Amino acid sequence: MDGxxxxxxxxxxxxxxxALLRAQAPELAALPVRAVAAVGTVNRVFRxxxxxxxxxxxxxxxxxxxxxxxxxxxxxARVLPVAVPEPVVVGAALPGLFDAAWSVVRWVEGEQATxxxxxxxxxxxxxxxxxGLDRGRLPAAGRPTAAAVxxxxxxxxxxxxxxxxxxxxxxxxxxxGAPVWDGRAVAVHADLLPPNLVLxxxxxxxxxxxxxxxxxxxxxxxxxxxxxxxxxxxxxxxADLAPDDGTWARARGIAxxxxxxxxxxxxxxxxxxxxxxRASLAEVLADPxx
Length: 290
Fold this sequence. Notes:
Elements lengths: L13 H11 L8 E3 L7 E6 L3 E6 L6 H16 L7 E5 L10 E5 L4 E2 L7 H11 L19 H9 L6 H12 L9 E3 L8 E4 L2 E5 L6 E3 L7 H4 L4 H10 L3 H22 L4 H16 L4
Helix pairs in contact: 3-7, 4-5, 4-8, 5-8, 8-9
């Protein structure tokens, strides 16, 4: 079992997976179970045989994502040019064993992406295809507004090490001044970070972790401009998706808030993710956002 990342995490290991399967999906219980080496911030992931994976939320509240994914992922699978972890079993909490909903999904083969190595054309194609979904069938989704997380972000900035805090605060003030979303929703993944993207042969081949997906502000899926892309790819990404300036400014604010809050939270427990967030924040600060 990997280490805890949050207070109050649910206890789970391979034996937990086997017990849940025996109780709720006995036809899969004989398959071998092994933990996936990559550390997820929301779920513990276990390989089940060769074709499946089991996702156990780290926190009880994470079980709410299971129902969302059961709605969104099958719809996304119909339109995306890449693979997604389609649900096979939607499991329920089992008191005394595991106190949250959980799932079995199809394993998406490939390697976890790294920032700067993700083809911009492939990323644009995924976002464009996702926006073609009928949003009326999707739950509301997306990150909180800048105003809603203002106090949290400002507190995180006071604890931020390795950056000019005045510059970060100035960039955050700009995010607070961005035009408010007009409410015209599109289908969004809302967490397009490198750990959730899979590459094969240098091409984007899969998108994972749909726990925050649904219908929301298109700015949510522009965050990869800073979290995933480097150099001239960001300009190409913006040109291809052609967001208005207000949407781009909101996206920059989302990227900043996500990074600033995560850095002090994960510095000790998940240093690789904290490092990714530091790199994203550096990209935000280096980009004038205009």
